[in-house]
Design a protein that fits this description.
The protein is 16% helix and 26% strand. The chain is of the alpha/beta class and 270 residues long. It has an 11-stranded mixed sheet, with no helix packed on it. The protein starts with a strand and ends in a 17-residue tail after the last helix.
Length: 270
């Protein structure tokens, strides 16, 4: 605990490991198996328990509950883990649960530079990539996989075992009960695919021609003729040298417990 600053009202377990320049604010409680890396800050009233590791430079705000046992009746007290990456911001009343032994690999993991706004929830066995933004009251059920650079609008919820591909955008108040393709945009309750996340792609400075090719592939894959499998195979061949299209093709072809979200009423991107 060398060079850590701990408020006198905080309770830190004897086995906890705190890096340099860690700040533990008033009324925080840290369990015996918690690891806080350098420059982590717990503002106040934060509780962290379980086999939980918080990456360097992350900040956690009041009344967040991190690493407490999962909300899963199958959980039997196994020493599962929670890993949170570097420079993450976890706002007020966020709840994040560790993994389970029931097909979850015993791990919940959040990447680097993620922002979880107030009252968001990450359930057991979720895996989140880097630069994920979850707005207020977003809820991820168990075993959800989220790629890098995904943004969730406020009060969106995601069904268990669902995948959300990299650079996708989930609209506010959407209920996601199927897989969302990389670079896709999903809206509604129940949600459907509403085109590509063109705003996000442009903000992240994707090549203009690459975006045009992705739009053409989207129209091909979600056209009305033939089967989805046939259209995906056609797109894979026609755009075999295009990295973005191949991301979508591989995502659709991968095994999943959930269906792929498709457009409603033949919607195509602008």
């Amino acid at each position: 605990m060398t060079s850590a600053t701990i408020h006198p009202t905080a309770i830190v377990g004897s086995g906890a490991k705190l890096g340099s320049e860690v700040k533990v604010g008033p009324f925080c409680i840290i369990g015996d198996n918690v690891v806080l890396h350098d420059n982590v800050e717990l503002v106040s009233h934060v509780t962290i328990d379980g086999h939980t590791e918080i990456g360097a430079g992350s900040r956690i705000f009041p009344f967040a509950s991190v690493g407490h046992e999962p909300q899963d009746r199958k959980y039997a007290g196994e020493a599962s883990r929670l890993e949170i990456g570097e420079r993450c911001v976890i706002r007020e009343a966020v709840t994040i649960n560790p993994g389970t032994a029931a097909g979850g690999g015993m791990l919940t993991k959040i990447g680097n530079d993620c922002l979880l706004m107030a009252s968001a929830h990450v359930a057991h066995d979720c895996i989140l990539g880097n630069n994920v933004i979850m707005a207020n009251y977003v809820g991820l059920a168990g075993h959800v996989l989220v790629g890098d650079n995904v943004t969730f609008g406020g009060m969106a919820v995601v069904h268990q075992f669902t995948r959300v591909g990299p650079h996708a955008f989930i609209g506010a108040q959407s209920m996601i009960d199927g897989d969302v393709i990389p670079y896709g945009m999903a809206l509604g309750n129940r949600a459907s695919l509403a085109g590509l996340n063109l705003v996000g792609l442009k903000r992240r400075k994707f090549d203009r021609e690459a975006i045009h090719r992705l739009r053409a592939a989207y129209r091909m894959i979600f056209a009305s003729e033939g089967t989805l499998r046939e259209r995906v195979e056609d797109a894979a061949e026609l755009f075999k040298n295009d990295a973005l299209v191949q991301d979508v093709v591989k995502f659709i072809g991968a095994a999943s417990d959930r269906p792929i979200l498709i457009p409603r009423n033949g919607h195509t991107p602008e």
